[in-house]
Design brief:
The complex is a heterodimer of chains A (309) and B (266). Chain A is of the alpha/beta class. Helices cover 35% and strands 25% of the residues of chain A. With 266 residues, chain B is mainly α. Chain B is built from ten helices and two strands, in the order H-H-H-H-H-H-H-E-E-H-H-H. Classes of the chains: A alpha/beta (309), B mainly alpha (266).
Chain lengths: 309, 266
Amino acid sequence: MQLKKQFVIETKNLSFGFSKKNSTLKNINLKVERGSIYGFLGPNGAGKTTTIRLLLGLLPDPNNSVFLFNQNFLQNRVQCLSKTGALIEQPSLYEHLRGFDNLEITRQLRKIPKERINDVLQTVRLSEAAFKKVKAYSLGMKQRLGIALALLPEPELLILDEPVNGLDPSGIMEMRELLQTINKKYNTTIFLSSHLISEVEKIVTHIGIINMGEMLFQGTINDLYNLKKNELKVRIKTDNPELAVTLLKASYSIVDHEDTLDIIIQSTKEVNDIIHLLINNNVKVYEAVTDSKNLEQIFLSMTQSYTVS
Amino acid sequence: MKELLAVYRTELIKTKNSFAFWLVILGALFIPAFFVATIAYHWHDYVHYLVVDNPNPWNEYSRKLFNGVHFTFLPLLIVLMVALVFNIEHKSNTWKHIFVLPVAKTKIFTGKYLALITLVLLLYCLLFTFYLLGGYLLGIWKPEFGFLNYSPSYKYRNVHTNIVAYLSKSFITVLAIIAIHFWLSFRMKNLFSTIGIGLGGVVLTLGMYISHWHSLIYVPYGLPVLMCNYAPDFHHVLTTFQKNSLIYFSIIFVASYFDFTKFFRG
């Protein structure tokens, strides 16, 4: 018997518009499994932050379409938020106070034992800077303090909006390691948004792709690879591209880059056929390179070729 | 109740090292320090002035000092204080953090109000302390003033008012401004917009006060100004303008509570 999947986040046709004429989100059906690291991806302005704000009640959702921990969010706001830690856009920090004070404020409001402050400071490696004023922190340190605030209640769900935004490569690497540790150590479900798949593809288990307010894909990373696995191409360089296009266009999709041609193929075996056909018709082939799409290319092809329905 | 206390405590932590906190101290110190320095500089004139027809120097000292406090300074100080308290949240971009905590909005609203009222009460306590300190320092420096021979007192037109009662009534007159600017300050992110509105109110008050407009008792920014040369109404606990302040406060408090809990999302 197959067990019913437990969704920590579920939205049912979540729609939202800042005005009646324009809808920013259209029928978003998110399904985030317990224990997963879910990468919510989309270009800038796709609707990621709006979705996150709706998930957390920071924007009105008249249709009550958000469910956290299998409970309707609006009807169980305090209960849902008690199990959730969040970092929305840049961290919300009182810069005139010390890092410790910032944690203390959240600790008191969440009624958490005092020892947790030291735990989270250690987790985000800020123990030594805890008694410095936040305004003296670097961007990476502020981001880590923001994560510490979100981790304070040992949340079952961590919602992070662009957590690596503005971080340098070593900061991004640190953040990745931190999130993987949290996920493995505490089985925390992590929902994180990003506009760059390369920043998150190494840690996410599931992916949701949104563009112009519509969900384009949702599933595991393997599902995404499988969906686009047929999209293999061979890039060839010839002395007569016009003739090459004429010879191949009946059987293949071709993108003409003037000096090179990108030919979409189903398998690498077809490369041999293409080269034979060209050589037999006196077209000289100087170069042939096969290329399968990586996640970033898949993401780009999905979001760039997409037009609003 | 525990949760409300936690919100209240955290609101007080937020004011630590903030401009709002320093404004309370400096605001309470400014007029007494300025007034005492003026008396000390022109002490020869003031020895005559403070004790003429009035052996107790505290009466004139109190009247003059508190006139200085209430005449436009106090309304502006309250406007600035409320704006700075809310600017802590706006500047730090922390509303979104507060609203994703498992705390009811009612408690956030009430805790913020309590913390703000605490700061205003601290302002009054410090003002009272600096007022006393100024009088006693003048008395020690120049015994001719006679500050050490009499108890602190306030008298206008031969009517005595207890200093604590006077300050309590003054506190009531600022409640209307607190309520208006509490509402404006959480709604308006720009610090200067709320201060500008307050400044406009004070300028209006100034014009009406100079022209002796009776309608000033209905202008929230004018109510503290009416504490200048104050003589209590012996038939009622509160005079009309003090009651008006309470009415404004009650109405605006309820309306802002409704707005904060139902519509405000940071």
